[in-house]
């Protein structure tokens, strides 16, 4: 039986993928004398944390009703909450490589020592890694994550995502899709490789399953080129040729491809017909002017050029699809004209993982909480590098 975090971790690795919550519960009771545990999973919209062991638990529900768990999830720090009979509830964030999955609740018989809290945190870290891996082998945690049935198109889009956030020594990156349960063609993808971060945001054409299929072809074509060592231009051109020879110009995908040198702060970009890049520096939001080129797949053998710009330490970049920028409910001015910049400025003190939710919530409020009329993507990138660079000199 487990007697410490190391053996709890081994128990998790040996557990069936659909039994991680039960395994963690039993191991924590044995190793640390826990009297109760619960695993909470964040839903697709990050609107709530939902229990896995006991789906009917009153602790589950919207984040507005979960003050302590919400504080843990938002801050990504352990939170202790003293309860009745001298017991203490320890809430631990479940995250891996910066992707927030949920919260682990461990109820202990008394106020824990710092070493006990650290031991529980180690278990939470191991559990988060196990949960990420288990998603390939079981549907249990995905079922907990959804609060309504996904459309077929949305199912494909969520499966295609690399994740919803990632943390690196030099940057933090987060993204969100809406409407979460019916999103069709809009999408984002990223990959970290040494000092290079590649990010793509797609403004998918059309709606429903046809749009999702087109996006899947586009994303996988760019991944194929990237994983074969292809440059940003080669990624765009392979995807464009693939789409054209499948649809002969009748379908195309507006796409932005970015490649950040995470050490120097140089961004290389291919702007294939949208989406929009905006920079938050201090309290000022300003668009990054890029020369728009043809959307992917519009013509045969389209060739693309790379443009460059730089970021400074502390800069925040937002990339938004037309469903965000051009949203215009009830004949109002577009969301991107003024309201979006206000929402972005309001995120100055929030981490990137919270900032994407703020911009998306303000978009919903702009629509008076009616259903969005178009797919919407918000991606937020914070660069934490040490110095800007002179592009011309390469220094």
TrEMBL record:
The keyword Ribosomal protein does not apply. Residues 168-383 form the PPM-type phosphatase domain. It holds the Pfam family SpoIIE. SMART domains: PP2C_SIG (SM00331). InterPro entries: Bact_Sigma-Reg, GAF-like_dom_sf, PPM-type-like_dom_sf, PPM-type_phosphatase-like_dom. Keywords: Hydrolase. PANTHER family: STAGE II SPORULATION PROTEIN E (PTHR43156:SF2), STAGE II SPORULATION PROTEIN E-RELATED (PTHR43156). This is Serine/threonine-protein phosphatase. It comes from Micromonospora solifontis.
């Amino acid at each position: 039986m487990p007697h410490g975090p190391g053996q709890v971790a081994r128990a998790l690795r040996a557990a069936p993928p659909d039994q991680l919550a039960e395994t963690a519960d039993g191991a924590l009771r044995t190793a640390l004398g826990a009297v109760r545990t619960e695993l909470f999973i964040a839903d697709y919209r990050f609107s709530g944390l939902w229990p896995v062991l006991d789906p009917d638990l009153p602790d589950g529900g919207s984040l507005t009703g979960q003050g302590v768990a919400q504080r843990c999830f938002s801050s990504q720090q352990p939170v202790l909450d003293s309860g009745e009979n001298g017991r203490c509830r320890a809430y631990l964030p479940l995250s891996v490589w910066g992707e927030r999955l949920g919260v682990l609740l461990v109820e202990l018989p008394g106020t824990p020592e710092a070493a006990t809290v650290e031991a529980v945190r180690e278990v939470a870290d191991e559990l988060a890694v196990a949960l990420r891996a288990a998603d390939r082998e079981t549907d249990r945690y995905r079922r907990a994550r959804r609060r309504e049935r996904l459309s077929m198109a949305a199912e494909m889009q969520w499966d295609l995502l690399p994740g919803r956030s990632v943390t690196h020594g030099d940057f933090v990156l987060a993204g969100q899709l809406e409407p979460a349960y019916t999103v069709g063609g809009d999408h984002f993808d990223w990959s970290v490789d040494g000092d290079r971060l590649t990010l793509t945001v797609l403004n998918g054409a059309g709606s429903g399953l046809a749009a999702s299929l087109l996006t899947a072809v586009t994303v996988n074509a760019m991944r194929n080129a990237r994983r074969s060592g292809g440059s940003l231009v080669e990624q765009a051109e392979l995807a464009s040729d693939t789409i054209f020879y499948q649809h002969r110009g009748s379908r195309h995908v507006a796409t932005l491809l970015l490649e950040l040198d995470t050490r120097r702060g140089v961004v290389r970009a291919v702007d294939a017909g949208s989406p929009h890049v905006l920079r938050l520096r201090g309290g000022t939001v300003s668009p990054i002017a890029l020369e728009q080129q043809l959307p992917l797949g519009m013509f045969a053998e389209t060739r693309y050029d790379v443009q460059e710009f730089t970021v400074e330490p502390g800069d925040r970049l937002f990339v938004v699809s037309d469903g965000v920028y051009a949203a215009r409910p009830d004949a109002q001015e577009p969301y991107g004209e003024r309201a979006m910049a206000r929402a972005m400025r309001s995120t100055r003190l929030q981490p990137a993982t919270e900032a994407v939710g703020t911009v998306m919530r303000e978009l919903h409020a702009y629509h008076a909480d009616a259903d969005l009329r178009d797919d919407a993507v918000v991606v937020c990138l914070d660069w934490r590098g040490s110095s800007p660079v002179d592009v011309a000199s390469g220094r």
